Amino acid sequence: MKMAETQVQEETFTLEEILSVTKEYHRLILWNDDINTFDHVIHCLMKYLDYSESQAEKIAWKVHNEGKCAVLEGTYTEVDVYRKILKEEGLTVSIE
């Protein structure tokens, strides 16, 4: 009988990443990039994070002018869900 082969992708984490998971509150940071248009960023903020159009525009301008902006705060698990969604949309995001 042939055993089924399974591929396991191993992830490594830094101490900083492990410690960051234990914090109670985390922030999802949206970073400026040269790829996404204002319209796409605004659309994503409205669709996934439930911002109004004017709020999303203000965030887009802040990201453009300051390089980044916190767009969501919550537990690591909550914030990570939205990080993955926005990353799939092509946005540059990270968790602090």
What report would you give on this structure?
With 96 residues, the chain is an alpha+beta fold. It has one domain (25-95): Ribosomal Protein L30, Chain: A, CATH 3.30.1390. 49% of the residues lie in helices and 18% in strands. The protein has a three-stranded antiparallel sheet with strand order 2-1-3. The longest helix has 14 residues, at 53-66. Residues 24-90 form the Adaptor protein ClpS core domain. Pfam families: ClpS. Keywords: Hydrolase, Protease.
Alpha carbon gap, first and last residue: 49 Å
Please tell me how large the radius of gyration is: 17 Å
Q: What general form does the structure show?
A: globular
Q: For the report, how would you describe the main beta sheet?
A: 3 strands, antiparallel
The run of helices and strands is HEHHEHE
The CATH topology is given as: Ribosomal Protein L30, Chain: A
* Structural class by SSE content: alpha+beta
> Percent of residues in helical segments?
40-55%
Any idea what the CATH architecture is? 2-Layer Sandwich
State the domain count. 1
Low-pLDDT runs of 5+ residues are: none
Q: How would you state the average pLDDT, rounded?
A: 88
Amount of beta strand: 15-25%
What's the number of helices?
Answer: 4
Strand order, largest beta sheet: 2-1-3
CATH superfamily: Ribosomal protein L7/L12, C-terminal domain/Adaptor protein ClpS
CATH uppermost class: Alpha Beta
SS elements, strand count: 3
Keywords: Hydrolase, Protease
Protein name: ATP-dependent Clp protease adaptor ClpS
Organism: Olivibacter oleidegradans
Pfam family, one: ClpS
